[in-house]
Structures are given as structure tokens and as C-alpha cells.
Amino acid sequence: MAQAAFEDIADTFEFLDDWEDRYRHVIELGKAMAPLEDALKVPATKVHGCASQVWLVPAPENGTFHFRGDSDAMIVRGLIAVLHALYDGVPVQDVPRIDAGGELARLGLNDHLSAQRSNGLRAMVERIRETAMAAA
Amino acid sequence: MYDVADVRAQFPILSREINGKPLVYLDNGASAQKPQVVLDAITRGYAEEYSNVHRGLHTLSSISTERYEGTRDVVRRFLNAPSQDEIVFNTGTTEGINMIAYGWAMPRMEPGDEIVLSIMEHHANIVPWHFLRERQGVKIKWVDVDAKGDLDPQAVIDAIGPKTKLVAVTHMSNVLGTVVDVKAICEGAREKGVPVLVDGSQAAVHMPVDVQEIGCDFYAITGHKLYGPSGSGAIFVKKARMAEMRPFMGGGDMIDQVTRDTVTWNAPPMKFEAGTPSIVSTIGMGVALDWMLELGLDNIAAHERRLRDRAIERFKGLNWLNLQGQSEGKGAIFSFTIEGGAHAHDISTVLDKKGIAVRAGTHCAMPLMEHLGTGATCRASFGLYNTEAEVDRLVEALELCHELFA
């Protein structure tokens, strides 16, 4: 079991059997997430290795992992919202134990994490893990 | 009569499904699929006829040399070059243009000398010239396209100054589909005594090319876009330019005599083909070009014009589609974005789910994208096996994108 925010998403996904509806929901999750201010979209927060742009601002606090993220692609933005539900609020020492690929597979979205997809999500997960480990 | 169903039946990959949907392959601008005759030639090349070329006296070596050298004449016919000795094989346009940059341009360029490029060149026809800019102080002069994506040949000719040593220009834009009047450019450049290199990577796929009629000094083609294997390509180099060109790579096969202190060269074009070449890929390219010639380059062009017209007609109904490039006689290459927040990657992700393969990004043409003031776009590029029904499938999928990302 992942944390509640992610389980809520997983519950919703159980009722969405075709990909169009799943994508629709991912896009909605992205739209509902607060956008990153332009001032935070700087080279330091940019995740490399992606053709669309992806930004990650990690903010671990008192042993708990927090982050904000954004992308100029709507599907990627929605997937960042999913990662947010998966990682945000988790104790930093637990972050590396989360199997993002396995959890996204439950939503039928794991192909977005594959190395062949240059959407930056894989690099983002890497950076989340690194930052959390450094803060632990 | 062009029978597209018969053409399609010759491409095994076109009968496969992607994400549960019949494949609609619209990424031909990046690379084309291969017909059965090419696949058979590759198999035969390795299974029955393989050996190194030019070297042995044994039977297999003669067969593979004959097939390899035979391809030179196929390319000569395909481009209507005067002589097959003016055809140099390589691995594709990138290597072809680098051969010219290193072999012909580099030794004759002084600091302050100029190369004229159009803004819609592919990086393969930009970055080798940046090398000369960085390393030898060569100046790149850019000629812009107008709002419709047309390149005025006179503007290119006018950009030629006393220090210009080369004009390097595409024959067809890989982003906009614009066809460039390279014949007019060559005429004007010739009057000023400046050679012209034409990047034919896209054009040669979609229309008949006659290098004698164009009057260019260099013409580059790439096998993998011409329904041939990847790792194959050729450049036409006019005899007079070839005499001025030095080899780009040294090694076996390109030499006549090698001693401790001296080396003499093999006769051109072999002088420019060091080492063991892409033997089977090159042979496969010859088979692909022969196959295209048999199909008829005019017939292919006419079929693709029908696809282009159908696409333009259908796109008119999508008032939220931003199309780049409205050039009159353009090829069936469409670069676009959708109004609203959708990124090119969003669109291509959804199209992929629908079984439709397009390219998303900046298409190896960043200066053009900057000129157009656009970031990443999607590109649907049609080939000889695409159908009008596939245009409709694309439009239907784009309508879904518009709805999903609204």
C-alpha cells in the first residue's frame, strides 16, 4: 500500500478501463496541481534528459519529503501530479523504497517511466530519490 | 495507375498493429520503412553472397563487388548524374556533407570567407559548417524564409558576396515541406563562380531529381529515407569538384600505394571510401532505388500530391490547428501544434495510442524553429505507401487530442 493520496488515485483508476479515460484523468490531475512559478523554472530545477521541459523543486523538511514539479507537456504534468501523490509527505528514509515503476503499473501508466521515453519522468524519479537520500 | 494497396502489401511492417490499432506510419521524414525486395536483398547479401568488396579474387568477392559497384550506376540513373564515377558512397547525408566540409571546403576556406545557408537547413547541413566557423573563422550567412515558408532564390543569390565560397541549401525542408528552386540558385551562383551543395535527403524521396538539370556541384542523398537500409547513402560530386576534394578519411581501399614515407590515392570515387564500407546496406539502397524507379518517380510524386491535397483539405476544417509552412508546391510534410496547452509530446503520445507514428520535437532544425518563433511541433510526413484513409485517421486522432487537451 502506498500512501493515501496515491491510493485514492488508484481507486479512481480501477473504474477507468480505457486509455482515453485514464489519460483524461491524468490530464485533470495535472490541471488541478498548482503550477510552478516562472521564477522557479530555472536551470537548477530543470530535469535533464527530456524533450519536453520538466522542473523539480525538492523541499524535504524535518525528515519528510516534499516537492513541487511542473512540465510544459500536459500528460507529463499529470504524471508529475501522480508522482506527487506517491512521494510527497513520505518520510525521507522511505522514499528510496518506493517502487515507482510498480505503482504506476497499477495505473497502467508504467510505460511512461521506461528509459526509451524521453519525457523526463525517469530522471525525475532519480532526482527525487537522490534528494531524499541526501536529506535522510 | 498507382496501386497503393499493392505497394503497401510489399511492406511487411505496415500490416502490424501498434497499441491494438493498425499502424499509420507518418514519420517518413525521419526514416522510411523497407519493402520486401530490400529485406530480401539484405538477407541474400549476407546469406548467399557476402564477402568484402574490391579485395579478393574469389567468387564471393566478385559477386559482392559487382553488386556494390552496380549500385553506383543505379544511383547515377536515380540522380541522372553524367558518370557513376561522380557517385561517392557513405552512410547517409550526415556523412556525405561532412565529407564535403572536411574534404572540399576546409582546405580552401580562409578566415572571413563565407558559406551561405538557408534558415531551414537540417542540422546535418549546419553543424559541419559550424565546425568551420569555430575552427577556421568562416562566417555563416543565413537567408530567411518568408511567412509562407518559401525561400526566394534571388535572396540566396544576393547573399553571395566576394568572400562566399559555398552555398549549401536543402532541396526540400524536412519541417515545412517547402521545395526550393535549387536550379535558379545554382544558375545565379554559377554566374558568381560559387559552387552549390544541395541537401537532397527529403527531396529525392518525393520527386524526380536531375542533378544535370539542377546544375549543382554536390547533391546528398540518404538511403534509409529512400526505403533502403540505414547506414547507406551517397553524394553526387561534380568531376571538377571531386578533383579539388581531398579524402576525409584514410585507410584501406582508398589508396594506390603506401610506403613508409609516401602514400598515393586510388582513383575517385574510391579515393573517398576508406575501409570496408556498408556493403550490404549500400547494395540494399541500390535495390530500393531500382524499386522506386520501377514504380515511377512521377507516379510516386503524383500519389503524394494527392495525399498532400487531401491533408490540406481536411486540416482546413480544424481551426485550432496551427500549421507551419503554406508553400504552394510543398511536399506532404506537415508540421503543426494545437491551440491550447497541449505540447507536441502530448499530441504524439495520444497519436501513438491510436497507432499513428509522428515525430515531435524540433526536427533537427533549431534555427528554423527559432525563426518561426515556435518550440517543439509535431510532424506528420507522408510516404509512397500512405493512403487518404490514413489522412482521415490522423484528422480523427487530432480531433481527440483537441478534445482531451482543451
UniProtKB/TrEMBL annotation, chain A:
Residue ranges constituting the Fe-S metabolism associated domain according to the UniProt record: 11-130
| Stored Gene3D superfamilies | 3.90.1010.10
| Family annotation (InterPro entries) | Fe-S_metab-assoc_dom
Looking up Pfam families in the UniProt record yields:
SufE
Q: Which spans are transmembrane here?
A: none
Record SUPFAM superfamilies: SufE/NifU
Concerning its family, UniProt says: Belongs to the SufE family.
Kindly provide the name given to this protein in its UniProt entry: Cysteine desulfuration protein SufE
Species per Swiss-Prot/TrEMBL record: Limimaricola pyoseonensis
Automatic annotation (TrEMBL), chain B:
**Protein's GO biological process:** cysteine metabolic process
Q: Which domain of life is it from?
A: Bacteria
Q: State the EC number(s).
A: 2.8.1.7
Q: Which cofactor does it need?
A: pyridoxal 5'-phosphate
Matching entries from CDD domains are given as: SufS_like
**Annotated catalysed reactions:** (sulfur carrier)-H + L-cysteine = (sulfur carrier)-SH + L-alanine
Enzyme kind, highest EC tier = transferase
What InterPro entries has UniProt attached to this entry? Aminotrans_V_dom, Aminotrans_V_PyrdxlP_BS, Cys_dSase_SufS, PyrdxlP-dep_Trfase, PyrdxlP-dep_Trfase_major, PyrdxlP-dep_Trfase_small
Q: One MF term in GO for this entry?
A: cysteine desulfurase activity
**One Pfam family, short name please?**
Aminotran_5
Query: Which positions fall inside the Aminotransferase class V domain?
Result: 24-394
Q: Does the keyword Transferase apply?
A: yes
Write out the entry's keywords from A to Z: Pyridoxal phosphate, Transferase
Q: Which family does it belong to?
A: Belongs to the class-V pyridoxal-phosphate-dependent aminotransferase family. Csd subfamily.
* Role of this protein: Catalyzes the removal of elemental sulfur and selenium atoms from L-cysteine, L-cystine, L-selenocysteine, and L-selenocystine to produce L-alanine.
Q: What is this protein called?
A: Cysteine desulfurase
Instruction: List the source organism.
Output: Limimaricola pyoseonensis
